[in-house]
Amino acid sequence: MKPYLKSLLFLAVAGAFALPWLSPPVYFVSLLFVVFMYVVLAESWVLIGGFAGYLSFGHGAFLGIGAYTTALLMNHFHLSPLYVLVSALPAGAAAACVAAVIGYPALRLRGPYFALITLCFAFVMELAVKNLDFLGGPEGLWLKAMGIEVGLARGIFFEVMLVLMLVTVLVVRRVESSRFGAGLKAIKEDEEVAQTLCVDTPRVKLSAFILSAFFPGVAGGLYAYYLSYIHPETVFNIDISILIVLMALFGGGSSYVGPIVGAISLSLVNELLSAFLKAEYARVIYGLLFVVLILYLPDGVISFFRGRKSGAG
Question: Under a CB-based contact definition with an 8 Å cutoff, are residues 46 and 263 in contact?
């Protein structure tokens, strides 16, 4: 990265950390919190969907698993909300454990079969939570308030989600340039050839799937307390899973940079659609965007603009 870009990036991060304490509009802080969360979700998805080529349409379910894990821990043990980080990390571990259980059989499937079973997983999780009384059933769960001023609470969660986003980006960047990442990319190119090159494909795929679930689980734990109330239709909404895939593919799933661009861009688009259109119309637009991406931007906007720059040069 060029020195001036590093300086701009440093200033942007420093400005983001300082923002909540400059008394900005509450809506703006909340919007950025959601943007950071979607960057975490899209970045983590790239580990299995972008690098390995296994398109998961159930990634949003790990967000819900993390949210409910935190809610249960905090309500059952009557912990102070100030211990939210203590329960957010086990939330990530819970999501990773679920990923290990479903990933072992699911990753034996490929292409549309894997995509379909992960989509079914997201639907099943929502239905299961709605029918389990100890999880609040269709009524959802309330979480104990932090007992401090709302602006201060939002500022704290803003900072923590920002840190989680930076950690996720750094981990994915490290994976991309590692031997582990090379194994994932070999699987994407040709899994049979990767096996002949001594890549332990079952272990590498499962490890990527588990790691990709951990960060959404932690984000879900933070998101649950940020909302103070969670409902199956909110945190297990299939639209979240679809939006995650769109974000990663829009920016470009072959690099850690693409999901950042896609998450920021489509988070703002999603906010506009949610504000001015009904959910049904938004789904139609998401579907059309999928078609456009597949036909005209299969490698994302990052690769598209890099290709134009190379062509111009």
Answer: no
Tell me whether residue 296 is in a domain.
Answer: no
By the 8 A CB rule, do 43 and 24 touch?
no
Residue 246 included in any domain: no
Here the tokens at position 222 are 């933070």
Average pLDDT of span 1-22: 81
**Number of domains present in the structure of the chain:** 1
Q: How far is CA 289 from CA 104, 275, 297, 298, in A?
A: 31, 19, 10, 12
Domain that holds residue 196: 24-237
* Spatial distance between the Cα atoms of 273 and 271, rounded to a whole number of angstroms: 5
In a domain, 276, yes or no: no
The pTM of this model reads: 0.91
Does residue 290 sit within a domain? no
Q: Express each pLDDT in 102-133 by its tens digit.
A: 999 999 998 899 999 999 999 999 999 999 88
Residue 238: count of CB within 10 angstroms of its CB: 17
Q: What is the DSSP letter of 171?
A: H
Query: Which tokens go with 197?
Result: 């090159």
pLDDT digits (tens, 9 = 90+) for 257-307: 889 998 998 888 888 877 776 666 777 777 787 787 777 777 777 776 665
